[in-house]
Amino acid sequence: MNTNTTLGRGVAMKAVIQDSYGTSEVLRVGDVNIPEPGDNEVLVKVHAAGLDRGTEHLMTGKPYVVRMATGLRRPKQPTSGRDVAGTVVKVGSAVTRFAPGDEVYGVAPGSFAEYAVGPENKLARKPANLTFAQAAAVPISAGTALQALRDVGKVRAGQTVLVIGASGGVGSYAVQLAKVFGAQVTGVASAAKADFVTSLGADHVLDYGRDDFADGTRTYDLILDIGGGSSLKRLRRALKPRGTVVFVGSENAGSITGMGRQLRGALLSLLVRQRLAILMARERASDLEQLTEHLEAGRVIPSLADNYPLDQARTAMELLESGKVRGKVVIIPLDTDAEEDGTR
């Protein structure tokens, strides 16, 4: 194994830990051993870690079906976090794309810590024009938006796209990427966030508290339903006769599978001309590399709501739970020098 580092086995680090499922109250900062990378893994010194809805689901253990993979009674992975940006300090014996000293971003389970291990195939070189904090706000949310538009939605230039939940982590990237693909974009958000969605490049913004996107005034080629709870009837009413709805996320969709409405939509899709599809997002380096091109060209810009030190991760999660976040929240490890690492 190529180490090029003084770190050894059994060395402790600070991390955000949860010993049970629940709200943000289950999060605490404690000491754990620095993880060792496997053959195809990379050990990263974490400079910043993004907070996404997936991390919240892993924290609450809901929908309950996620516990089949994460632990029935308590989390198998007690350290929180997934999005990461930092510097490689150790690589596994089979790793060929990275070496100690490389600046990377991507996915590393347990990233709310001073160090985290990530698979080589879920990491990419950090965009040169981004700070670590900006880069940490990208991987999962932007990758999900990219796959929803490109792979499932099959978006094309000139199409009309409706993004429900346009001010959130995935939504903020979906608006920008849809514009990159040449679509005309309408975003749905609260009135307080309308200016933010407009700043992302949306052509039109609807206030979900006042405007009804399904009133028949306008129909869309593609609808991204991001964490929404609209009925299938309303979604279809806003969709063109051969349009597509892509279900992204599972908020407000039940505690058991979180997929009841989506599954009904997929079944209905077999009987009608409209297409109602479920996104099963995958985390992969190839998507990060495509996103890097857009980020370095300035076509896509990360939207940072705020950043918090490691010992305030609970506060950051509470902000996400409140639904008041514009874009993404980022966690900064306690021992990271903000000026040196360019996180602020």
From TrEMBL:
SUPFAM superfamilies linked to this entry: GroES-like, NAD(P)-binding Rossmann-fold domains
InterPro entries: ADH-like_N, Chloroplast_QOR, ER, GroES-like_sf, NAD(P)-bd_dom_sf, Quin_OxRdtase/zeta-crystal_CS
Molecular function (Gene Ontology), one example: zinc ion binding
Secretion signal span: none
Span of domain Enoyl reductase (ER): 22-331
Protein name, entry field: NADPH:quinone reductase
Any Pfam family the entry gives: ADH_N
